[in-house]
Structure formats: C-alpha cells, structure tokens
C-alpha cells in the first residue's frame, strides 16, 4: 500500500499540522518533501513537535527517533509516526 | 565630575557608543552596573552575535562597517571561529570571556573613563546625573547623555519618557549557563528527544521544554539555553526585582534538573556538570524610550529607508512572546532596513540619545533591533551624534 493511502498518519495530515502549529515560517510551496531543518526547525522546535505528535497521534517519540532521517520532511515524519502506530 | 558624554550602560550598545565618542576626543564616561562590559553577551552568556551581517547572501557581509567590523574581527581572532549561516541569516559565534576582555581593551585604547559597579539613580535635564556604588552617591555633569541601559533607565527619572510593552506580549527572557564534562559529539536532536522523555517520565517539568545546548567552541565546554515564561511569580515584568528574582531562581532550578537528568540518561553525559551561572538572566525586552521618530516592525519588514538613517537593521523580527521557541519574520525583498536618527533621540529633550534595545520603536521592530550586532551600530551612531550633532538637523 502507498504510504499516503494507509489508515495511519498521512503525509498531508502532517503538512496540515505543521501549518496549524506554525513552529516556523512555511513557504507557499511547502509540501511533502520540504526539508524542515532547512526551513528553520531547530532542537527547540523538535521538542515541540514530539509533544504535538504525541497529542495528535498518540505516538511517543523519543531520543532514538530524533534524527534528520526520521523527522527531516513531512513524508519522513509521517512514515516515522506510522511505523510506531 | 564633568564630562562631555555620559553613557549609561556598558552592554553592546553602550560599549560602541562610549568608544565612538571618546575616539573623537570627547571626554567620555561609561557607567556600568556589573564588573564587566558586554551586557547580555557577557553577564547573560548570550554567545552569538546576531544582526552583524546582511540578510541572505553567499558570504557574510557586515551590514554596519565601523565598530561592528572591529569587534567582529577581534572576536574571530580570539575564538578562531568565523561567521556561520543558519537558515537565511549569518551569525558570529562569540565567547563571553573573550567579549569581556576585548571590551576592556577597546575602552582603554579609546580613553573612556569607566565606572563599574555603578547604577544610575537620578537624571535631570542639563544634564546632571547621580550614580550609586555601594550606597555612595557620585554626581556627574555632562553635555550629552546616551541611555544604553537596555531598560530605558534614564526615562525613569524623566516622567513619561518611556514606553513599556504590555506584559502579555513582552519577549520572554532567556537563561544561559555553562556546562562542562560532556564527552563525545553533541547531538542536539537526540538531546531534545531525551528531555521530552524526561518530562514524560515525570523527572522534568514542562519548564524544561526548550532547553537546548550548543558547543562553545572551546574544548569540553557547551552552553545550555533555556527560555523562561517569566511568569514564575505572576505577570512577567522585567523591571520588577521580585519577578527578576523568581526568573533567576527558576533558571538555575530548571537547568540543574535538566543536566542531572541527562547525566543519568544520556550517553556521554555521565560526568556533566554546570560549570558557571550567568550574572543575570537575559532580558530581551522591557521599556523603550519615546523618540522623535518611532521605528515600526512594518518598516523593518519592508526594508524601509529614511532620510536620516544612521544604522541598518538586518535581523528578522524574532518574536519570543511565549517560551515555546522563536517565530521568525524575515525582511521582504530587502537585506536591511534603515534605523533613523530620530529613533535615537529622546523626544522633548536636547542632547539626550538612546541606543540599543531601548531605542524608540514598536514591539515588533524591537524584536529585530534588540540583537547585539545591531546594538553595536546604534551605539556607534548615538556616540557620533552626541559629539558631532544629528545628521541634517539640530
């Protein structure tokens, strides 16, 4: 099954969440593959993000998950959440 | 004591103002409440010079050549570290210990008279000021006064000259401490996750959220930075000593808890300890002067210029109205915005100038002009105006 079509967390939901939470300024062409760290996501924003993910999706990410590979883009983020749902 | 120029406050703005005034030959006195110069960059351990360079670009270009360039060059020589690009902005890592020492040398070379451990306790037009050191008063007469106190302290003695920001929107304070004993690479993302784990486990309070660590550039030394709500004891008021006291205590308490938690749970942190506390918490915003002109956030965002511009602001509006991380708003289609001379002149008073984070601007503009790189530039401009007069005006 395609990642974006599964029943778990979807990439578009992550994009929407990032728009709502406004942890950092998002450009107009912000999308599934945008590099969050390049857009200004720092270690402080990562903490906020982990807390928000737990509130929204009930997934408790921790230190081992906090990496560019796991959180770097909305797509990677959705995959990380899904893998833990 | 009689001087040509009295500078109140020896932070980044007051340092630049005093050096600039003294270099023109004016007899200049700098009054500072701590025992070292540099303000937020030394007493509060803020370890990055922001606002030194133009926005964007492939290389770091100094926005306000002059004393900013001199301080940047001396700092680079002292630390061996050059400018770094973070997203769209260039910053210069700075070390508080080096900043204090290079400030001493700048002041001595320029021939500035210096009174450490002194607080302003009165100011009357004309100008007559009183400072207090350990209970003993000293009278200073000056042709010109520059308020670079950060909190518009001079305005306290000239009724109605200052503008406080509403408590709910005030930029939150930062608490920075020095940490040593950590081995191996610093993985800031992993540390973020670890702190959240500590909160989940109930070992850390919500106040720990947002504490982050950065290498100081010196072997084995890192800085820990914590943004506080300022509401540890009622509404945030950075001019109320009871509020400031609660912030200092909360900063130490939360930072201690975080480092203790990481010592037990984070690889490489087994031998970590807090090596030094700041002299004071880092206040970002309090009162501002009402000037002949008031710079607005809209002007900064638009990269606006004015006929009487004396310095360039380049830093984005870095809003920290909560302690949940910064919100950055960048200048649109511009690499800098002009700061007019009028924003550095107190309204209704002659020969009274303002520099640094308490110059005349609105809350949004202050979120850009408060950074140390811009404070060097407004300090330099105020120092020049105090001696040579205002460009194109009285």
Account of the 3D structure:
Chain A has 85 residues and is mainly α. Chain A has helices at residues 11-21, 43-57, 68-71, 74-84. Chain B has helices spanning 12-23, 67-79, 96-110, 188-200, 241-265, 297-302, 363-369, 372-388, and strands at residues 2-8, 28-31, 48-49, 84-86, 89-93, 113-115, 119-124, 128-133, 136-147, 162-164, 174-180, 212-215, 221-227, 273-276, 287-289, 309-313, 317-319, 327-329, 337-340, 352-354. Chain B is built from 8 helices and 20 strands. Chain B has 2 domains: 2-167 and 285-388, FAD/NAD(P)-binding domain (3-Layer(bba) Sandwich), CATH 3.50.50; 174-276. Chain B has 394 residues and is α+β, with helices and mostly antiparallel strands. In chain B, strands 1, 2, 6, 7, 8, 9 and 20 form a 7-stranded mixed sheet that branches. In chain B, strands 12-13-11-14 form a 4-stranded antiparallel sheet. Chain B has a 3-stranded antiparallel sheet with strand order 3-5-4. The longest helix of chain B is centred in the middle third of the chain and has 25 residues, at 241-265. In chain B, helix 4 crosses helix 5. Chain B: One of its GO terms (molecular function) is 4 iron, 4 sulfur cluster binding. Chain B: It comes from Haloferula rosea. Chain B: InterPro entries: FAD/NAD-bd_sf, HdrA-like. Chain B: Keywords: 4Fe-4S, Iron, Iron-sulfur, Metal-binding, Oxidoreductase.
Helicity of chain A, as a percent range:
40-55%
**Portion of residues within helices of chain B:** 25-40%
Amino- and carboxy-terminal Cα gap of chain A = 16 Å
Question: What is the approximate shape of chain B?
Answer: globular
- Here the CATH topology of chain A equals Non-ribosomal Peptide Synthetase Peptidyl Carrier Protein, Chain A
What number is the mean pLDDT of chain A? 88
Largest interface: A-B, 26 and 25 residues
List segments of chain B where confidence is low: pLDDT < 50 over at least 5 consecutive residues. Answer: none
> What is the β-strand count of chain A?
0
CATH architecture descriptor name of the largest domain in chain B: 3-Layer(bba) Sandwich
Strand fraction of chain A equals under 5%
* C-alpha geometry of chain A: globular
């Amino acid at each position: 099954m395609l990642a974006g079509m599964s029943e778990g967390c979807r990439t578009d939901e992550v994009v929407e969440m990032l728009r709502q939470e406004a942890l950092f300024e998002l450009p107009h062409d912000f999308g599934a593959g945008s590099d969050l760290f390049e857009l200004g996501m720092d270690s402080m924003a990562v903490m906020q993000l982990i807390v928000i993910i737990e509130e929204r999706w009930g997934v408790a990410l921790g230190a081992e998950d906090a990496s560019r590979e796991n959180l770097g883009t909305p797509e990677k983020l959705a995959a990380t959440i899904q893998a833990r749902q | 004591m009689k001087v040509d120029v009295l500078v109140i406050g020896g932070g980044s703005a007051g340092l630049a103002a005093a050096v600039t005034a003294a270099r023109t030959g004016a007899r200049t006195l700098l009054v500072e409440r701590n025992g070292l110069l540099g303000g937020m960059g030394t007493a509060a351990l803020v370890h990055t010079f922001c606002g030194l360079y133009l926005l964007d670009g492939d290389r770091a270009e100094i926005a306000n050549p002059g004393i900013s360039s001199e301080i940047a060059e001396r700092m680079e020589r002292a630390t061996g570290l050059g400018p770094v690009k973070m997203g769209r902005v260039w910053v210069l890592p700075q070390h508080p210990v080096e900043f204090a020492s290079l400030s001493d040398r700048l002041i001595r070379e320029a021939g500035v008279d210096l009174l450490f451990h002194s607080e302003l306790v009165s100011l009357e037009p004309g100008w007559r000021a009183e400072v207090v050191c350990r209970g003993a008063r000293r009278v200073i007469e000056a042709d010109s006064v520059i308020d670079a106190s950060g909190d518009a302290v001079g305005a306290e003695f000239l009724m109605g000259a200052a503008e406080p920001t509403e408590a709910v929107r005030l930029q939150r304070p930062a608490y920075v401490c020095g940490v040593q004993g950590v081995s191996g690479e610093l993985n800031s993302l992993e540390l973020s996750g670890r702190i959240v784990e500590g909160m989940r486990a109930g070992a850390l309070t919500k106040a720990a959220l947002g504490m982050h660590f950065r290498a100081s550039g010196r072997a084995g030394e890192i800085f820990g930075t914590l943004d506080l709500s300022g509401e540890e004891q009622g509404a945030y008021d950075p001019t109320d000593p009871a509020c400031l006291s609660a912030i200092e205590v909360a900063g130490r308490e939360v930072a201690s808890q975080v480092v203790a938690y990481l010592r037990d749970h984070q690889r490489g942190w087994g031998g970590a300890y807090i090596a030094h506390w700041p002299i004071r918490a880092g206040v970002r915003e309090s009162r501002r002067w009402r000037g002949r002109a008031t710079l607005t956030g809209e002007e900064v965002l638009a990269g606006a210029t004015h006929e009487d511009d004396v310095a360039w602001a380049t830093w984005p509006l870095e809003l920290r109205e909560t302690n949940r991380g910064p919100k950055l708003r960048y200048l649109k289609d511009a690499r800098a915005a002009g700061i007019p001379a009028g924003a550095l002149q107190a309204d209704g008073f002659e020969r009274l100038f303002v520099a640094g984070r308490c110059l005349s601007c609105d809350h949004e503009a202050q979120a850009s002009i408060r950074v140390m790189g811009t404070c060097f530039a407004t300090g330099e401009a105020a120092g020049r105006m105090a001696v040579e007069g205002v460009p194109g005006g009285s």
